[in-house]
Specification:
It contains eleven helices and eleven strands. By secondary structure, the protein is α+β, with helices and mostly antiparallel strands.
């Protein structure tokens, strides 16, 4: 049986040789694991976050939560941020639509509880542990809440954001579009007709790790730089995600060109019968063409009719436009645990409870 790496928080490059070997083995077999339908819970996703989207001074631990030696592990990826003394977090940031254990079905509840005890009583001793955003119906959510509670932490959960999604009849995009609002259908029809008659119009969906991939990534970056969105704080993350997704067969990177210039781009991931809409952007100089809407419609048709997905997920946010494309709404929640053995944990627990009380009171009187 291989020894489980101890909870030592380091940067990935400083992992022990043993930990690196286990991680490399599991990354190599990641596609074969029963990791569910969400790419954001794959070990490779967390490895990319660690490599390309961690703030300076952050440190990382991959805590192994399986005791078997069958060559596959469930991990709880943890991080400490340089300006958050006394707190430990699940490895996530603003790119993260869903956090949880990797291969959660393999996770050993007793090892999670042992970890929670170590974090509460050991050295260093942590005042707060926080994991978000999570699916409240997942085993990860249940295990983290119950294990930390049994280990003596004061545990609660909280609202993170709304997630819009729709379950689909595979292969029947016509049925999907019939359910859309009339205004959206009319916009799609008019914009497709206008763009289709424009000289130099081309729509492509890139999927494979071939010679066209880097050109497609460059087109996406160009569109994003000319969009309304703030510059990426970690500019290597999305290109890295595109390359990872192409190598794993997840990538659906749609781009619209006019006269060889990219004017709209969207990054989608398709994994195990589910499509995830990750990033959308269009060139503001071409906003009147509704190229973004045309590209969305093309990608919806592709994932429904070609990939034959059973669900499409808009990931993060309660934006009004998402309600035109989706018919179902659910919440993502976080888990927070307070160590009442520490003064800091006691103070933060009191502030959390007080804030929760006042929010409920305001809802009652409004």
């Amino acid at each position: 049986m291989r020894k489980t790496p101890s909870l030592v928080l380091k940067t990935p490059s400083e992992f022990s040789d043993e930990a690196k070997g286990i991680l490399a083995s599991d990354l190599a077999s990641d596609d074969a694991l029963d990791v569910g339908a969400d790419p954001h819970l794959h070990l490779a996703w967390f490895a990319l976050l660690a490599e390309a989207a961690m703030p300076v001074g952050a440190s990382l631990s991959l805590q192994v939560l399986t005791s078997s030696a069958d060559g596959a592990h469930s991990y709880l990826p943890l991080m400490i941020l340089p300006d958050e003394n006394g707190k430990i977090f699940g490895l996530s940031n603003f790119y993260t639509p869903l956090f949880g254990l990797t291969d959660e079905a393999r996770a050993d509840a007793s090892l999670i509880e042992r970890l929670a005890v170590d974090l509460r009583k050991g050295r260093p001793r942590y005042a707060v542990a926080q994991f978000s955003p999570m699916d409240p119906e997942s085993r990860s959510f249940t295990l983290l809440k119950s294990s930390f509670k049994r280990a003596g932490w004061q545990v609660d959960d909280y609202f993170c954001f709304v997630n819009w999604f729709e379950r689909i009849v595979p292969g029947d995009s016509a049925a999907y579009f019939r359910r859309r609002p009339s205004q959206l259908k009319n916009t799609i029809r008019r914009a497709e007709q206008k763009l289709g008659n424009t000289p130099g119009y081309k729509l492509e969906i890139f999927q494979h790790p071939d010679e066209s991939l880097e050109q497609a990534i460059a087109a996406y970056v160009q569109v994003y730089s000319r969009s309304w969105k703030e510059p990426e704080p970690y500019p290597q993350f999305i290109p890295g995600l595109c390359r990872l997704a192409a190598n794993k067969g997840w990538l659906r990177l749609g781009v619209i060109f006019l006269a060889q210039k990219p004017i709209a781009a969207q990054l989608w991931l398709v994994v195990a019968g589910k499509a995830h809409i990750v990033k959308l952007a269009y060139d503001q100089d071409h906003s009147k063409t509704s190229a973004g809407t045309v590209l969305s419609a093309a990608l919806f048709r592709h994932v429904i009719d070609v990939d034959r997905v059973e669900e499409i997920d808009y990931l993060m946010g309660d934006d009004q436009y998402k309600q035109n494309w989706m018919n179902s709404r659910r919440e993502r929640r976080g888990v927070i645990a307070f160590n009442l053995r520490t003064v800091f944990g006691l103070a933060l627990a009191a502030r959390h409870v007080t804030g929760k009380f006042w929010r409920r009171l305001r809802r009652c009187v409004s």
